[in-house]
Amino acid sequence: xxxxxxxxxxxxxxxxxxxxxxxxxxxxxxxxxxxxxxxxxxxxxxxxxxxxxxxxxxxxxxxxxxxxxxxxxxxxxxxxxxxxxxxxxxxxxxxxxxxxxxxxxxxxxxxxxxxxxxxxxxxxxxxxxxxxxxxxxxxxxxxxxxxxxxxxxxxxxxxxxxxxxxxxxxxxxxxxxxxxxxxxxxxxxxxxxxxxxxxxxxxxxxxxxxxxxxxxxxxxxxxxxxxxxxxxxxxxxxxxxxxxxxxxxxxxxxxxxxxxxxxxxxxxxxxxxxxxxxxxxxxxxxxxxxxxxxxxxxxxxxxxxxxxxxxxxxxxxxxxxxxxxxxxxxxxxxxxxxxxxxxxxxxxx
Length: 349
Hints:
CATH superfamily of the largest domain: LarA, N-terminal domain
Radius of gyration: 19 Å
Number of domains: 2
Distance between the termini: 21 Å
CATH architecture of the largest domain: 3-Layer(aba) Sandwich
Strand content: 15-25%
Helix content: 25-40%
Number of strands: 16
Number of helices: 12
Mean pLDDT: 93
Largest sheet: 8 strands, mixed
Oligomer: single chain
């Protein structure tokens, strides 16, 4: 049976985007009075101006409050360098970007503690993932709202809600587990020893050997930062083998997390779509397609499929700009794990 996906188109104005989000929010599940409702967002890198905006988060908060429920907004720490790898810098950045309690009308919380380790473990039985570590409210609270910005992604081609759940609602060890199958290697014939990969590596896995960069695979966490840092094509991954495992790990983590919540609502904002995800420095970049609109559903897979279909109406923009469209395998595996169905009924508002 096809799942309902609600859609409202937008133009380039902020007013249009807020109106579109307000339109889909009328289908938000009914939350019981006084229940706590976490809202998952990603504020993006300090040099990423295109992540979810505070005014959009405020609309979600106010809608939940109109039901007399108690919302809070949260994110988790990342595994790479920057202002989001500990809660102090992460929260400071969030405030700089406007995610202050007085503006978004709710608390903003870094849910996995100061260093991204605080949480609890659950045993699972998937092909790759046998244990997940997640913030401590997972398994206690019944409700979840996930607000995602649609982007390209170097490892999947496309990223939105599934990535926001799998990576964004896991503690740092969980993020490392998901990335652990992706092991980049240096082609010494292309390496000019510029040092960019060494500087950006979050775990100091890259050193110099024979005047070339060298990646210690037993230290590497597979975050992919070096892939983006290298401007000479000297770092690559064996995508034919590694991409599939990475995608399956992401889906397994998302499935394990979402099974812990009874009521879930997912929203994808398909505008200001960049080639790379919001974890990257994307200042001054061109968008890879026009602004499309806001999608919402209680089925995360149907939501993702509807979003991708709309983005790729004329051509596969993610394949065009990232040279990969592994998200198709991701959706198939998500359906196999009963995470949702790619069959959807698009309801235009």
